[in-house]
Amino acid sequence: MLFDVDQGRFLEIHERLCAYFGCPVAFFHALDPVSELVSSLLSHRTKNRDSSTAFRALRERYADWDAVIDAPTADIEATISAATWPEQKAPRIQASLRWIREERGELSLDFLGELTTEAARAWLERIPGIGPKTSAAVLIFSRLRMRALPVDSHHHRVAQRLGLIPPKLDVGPAHAVLEAMLPSEWDTQTVYDHHEVMMFLGQKVCHYQGPKCPDCPLLDLCPTGQARTQGTTTSGTKTESAAKRALPRSGAATLF
Ligand code: SF4
Question: What domains can you pick out in the chain, each with its CATH number?
Fold first, then answer.
């Protein structure tokens, strides 16, 4: 795949967001990678507060991750009830932990730190149900601190509205497109900062419904924001069609 990336615009976006939110951003976790995997699975489409509550409940109730594998699934489901979809996450967590133990003979992912980031991601994505977001989260958020870019729903939405990725590109394949834009000299902290500030913008300004474009530090760089502010009707309603018209057809990031 080839991408025509306007790297100057990408860097301007990053620098403005870093100035707006403050970089470097402190890492919020330093868990071992198995624990980070469980935490990431719990966090899917769940508020941070609720996934943290579910994660703490698991840690408090069970002595270790082996005990989680061996527990009745209904008990795990009840323990993580603070998270969304505990009935799906409980068997997924147990199956993932079991897969690792059977593959490695122990419940440890520390060996991933000896691999390249690409090889470590490929290994993690062999676990059934684990995709690029979770593999990247395990590698960069855990104490492994490897240079991988997670793309959550906020990051994905902001990248779409900015025209960094094609409008219909799903979050899974968006990982490779957005990762290809990262300057090779960026270290793990800078990659982490980039993910965090894109996510912060999605959480605090570029909301799913009603993005606050007039308050956004990226308004002059954003085709969606330009269309929304220029396409405001006299009643104040933003026109979605105007936003779509302004998205670049072969602009900042063109997928071939
Ligand atoms: S200008 Fe509007 S649509 Fe564009 S990134 Fe900012 S808040 Fe989102």
Answer: 3-23+152-255 (1.10.1670.10), 33-141 (1.10.340.30)
